[in-house]
Amino acid sequence: MKKEITLKLNGYETTVAVEPHEKLLDVLRDKLGVKSPKYGCGRGECGACSVLLNGKSVRTCIMYAVEADGQEIVTVEGLEKDGLTPLQESFLAHNSFQCGFCAPGIIISATELLTSNPHPGEEEIREAIAGNLCRCTGYGSVVDAIVDVTRSE
Ligand code: FES
Ligand code: FES
Question: Structural domain of residue 61, as residue ranges?
Fold first, then answer.
């Protein structure tokens, strides 16, 4: 039986009817048109589906949508204010992605880190993105982009 849930999604209150078994990832992508979270592994292992839930990154492929009722969700679509964030600009400047499939999840993890710790060391950066699998870049350009933004802020 469907249940109506209300989210604050990227700054807007949003109500949607969901089945009890529906994953948050499917609701975001298929019912709410938010496409930045990606379906990678579907098992909570790759980080491609990450969003910020009340400021903390969560894996939406293993979370039921009903669990998000009343919560605040931010996806990459909601990060921009007046254009791209400095972090996003830095990723572009460093060519930090190739296919880009991992990009939204990594941006979410890096945003979470920089919000709580604006000047992390490289080890802290690597630890923060350790749960985001990228099969293209080798992570060097990703780490460089995050390091750079910590220096410019
Ligand atoms: S798709 Fe969710 S962690 Fe891989
Ligand atoms: S850029 Fe292709 S998976 Fe990361």
Answer: 3-78
Name the residue among 42, 46, 44, 15 with its Cα closest to residue 31: 15
Contact of 40 with 101, CB cutoff 8 Å:
yes
Query: Is the pLDDT reported for residue 82 higher than 90?
Result: no
- Judge if the beta carbon of residue 78 lies within 6 A of ligand 1: no
Tell me the average pLDDT across 13-20: 98
Res. 74: pLDDT tops 70: yes
Backbone angles phi, psi at 8, to 5 degrees: -95, 105
Shared domain for 44 and 94, answered yes or no, is no
CA of 8 to the centre of ligand 2 (A): 29
Q: Based on the domain organization, do 58 and 121 belong to the same domain?
A: no
pLDDT value, residue 119 = 95
Which of ligand 1's atoms lies nearest the C-alpha of 61?
A: 2
Residue 38 CA: nearest ligand 1 atom is 1
Domain identity same for 71 and 41: yes
Distance CA 38, CA 3 (A): 24
Say what the pTM is.
Answer: 0.96
